[in-house]
Specification:
Elements: H1 6-29, E1 36-37, H2 42-46, H3 54-62, H4 73-96, E2 99-100, H5 112-123, H6 133-148, H7 153-164, H8 166-169, H9 177-200
Helix pairs in contact: 1-4, 3-6, 4-6, 4-9, 6-7, 6-9
């Protein structure tokens, strides 16, 4: 395994993250067609609004930075490819099929948690629901960490699952947004492996 310094990973991951996040903000605010609300399922109605889960919601998105700790150079490059493909798929859906979520009224108390939730709602519009980018990017990060440290999968994925529920309890997403986010993450991981195989096994030249 070829070690990769943390700083070198940051030089590649952070600019890429910034560019893709800019794309998120553009599609979040500039719409080619009017975003539409999706029907709320029985599960959407049954899941309670838990204001305090804004903190695991913030923690969830930090999981996309897990690749900073990857020491295998080939795995790190594949993770960047997976991350790029997955988020670009999200951007395509957000641009062409924009959706919006009916958020609950903003809390008016003076507590730090209420302030954090109001800040969150001010940072993002209710658009860009399906698929959930809050699921896609962290899922790719967890995949990379679990691939480099297979013995840690026993806690990596359950921890991700618990944090992922916060997209529902903060009422930022529909239930369907969660599996849709996992789907684009999986497609990104699959595409990253296919690109690598194509590079390693090029078609033989023909006369």
């Amino acid at each position: 395994m070829t070690p990769v310094p943390w700083r070198k990973n940051a030089h590649a991951l952070l600019p890429l993250t910034a560019v893709l996040y800019l794309g998120y903000q553009v599609t979040n605010r500039v719409h080619l067609v009017t975003p539409r609300a999706l029907p709320l399922t029985a599960l959407d109605h049954a899941i309670p609004f838990l204001l305090w889960t804004v903190w695991p919601y913030f923690l969830l998105i930090t999981l996309l930075f897990l690749p900073l700790g990857i020491r295998d150079r080939a795995l790190f490059r594949r993770t960047l490819r997976a991350f790029t493909v997955a988020v670009c798929l999200n951007l395509l859906v957000w641009a062409l099929l924009p959706t919006t979520y009916p958020r609950p009224p903003l809390p008016d108390d003076a507590g730090l948690t209420a302030f954090a939730y109001r800040w969150l709602c001010g940072l993002d519009t209710p658009a860009n629901c399906l698929p959930s980018g809050h699921i896609t990017s962290p899922a790719v990060g967890c995949w990379a960490l679990a691939r480099e440290h297979p013995r840690h999968r026993i806690w990596i994925w359950p921890a991700f699952g618990l944090l992922a529920l916060s997209i529902l309890t903060t009422k930022q997403h529909y239930v369907w947004d969660l599996p849709a986010g996992l789907a684009t993450a999986a497609l990104g991981v699959w595409a990253s492996g296919w690109v690598r195989r194509e590079a390693e096994d090029p078609e033989p030249a023909t006369d």
